[in-house]
Amino acid sequence: MSTDKKLKIAIGADHAGFAYKELLKEYLSANDVKDFGTYSSDSVDYPDFAHPVALAVESKEFDFGVLVCGSANGVAITANKHQHIRAAICWLNELASLARLHNNANIICIPARFVSEELAKEMVDTFLTTAFEGGRHENRVNKITC
User: Fold this and answer.
1) What is the fold of 8-136?
2) What are the extents of the domains in the chain?
3) How far apart are CA 25 and CA 139, in angstroms?
4) Which residues are catalytic?
5) Each residue of 3-50: pLDDT tens digit?
C-alpha cells in the first residue's frame, strides 16, 4: 500500500477473520496499526472487537478502521451503532471505492469467507487511498447521524 501520509489504522476481527486480520496487519505495517484483537482463531464474540475499533475511529484517535469476520455483517452492524461511524461491507474493489467516494465510510468490513486474500488487500488499499468526493454526497452523509 502506498500513501503519502502514514495512516493510523485500528484493526480487529473475530475468529473467522483472524487469519485475514493478521495478513492485513502485516500488509499495512508501514502505517501505525493497532490490533484490537482477537489474537487467535478460538471462538469469540465479534462485538468485543468491533466496538473498540469503532470507538478508536469515532474518537479520531485513528484515521480508519478495518474489521474482518466471516460475513462482515456482524462487525458492520456493531460498528454502525456508533454515531459517527460509517462502516461499509465490501466484497468488490468497486464497493470499497464507492464507500469512500460517496459515503465517506471510515471503517471497511471484510467478509473473510467470501473474498480472496489478494482481493482483501486490494480493497483495503482502495479504501485507504480514496478520498471522499463531497459535493452532493456531503449533504447525504450529513443526514446519516441521528
Assistant:
1) Ribose 5-phosphate Isomerase B; Chain: A, (3.40.1400)
2) 8-136
3) 34
4) 69, 102
5) 578 999 999 999 999 999 999 999 999 999 999 999 999 999 999 999
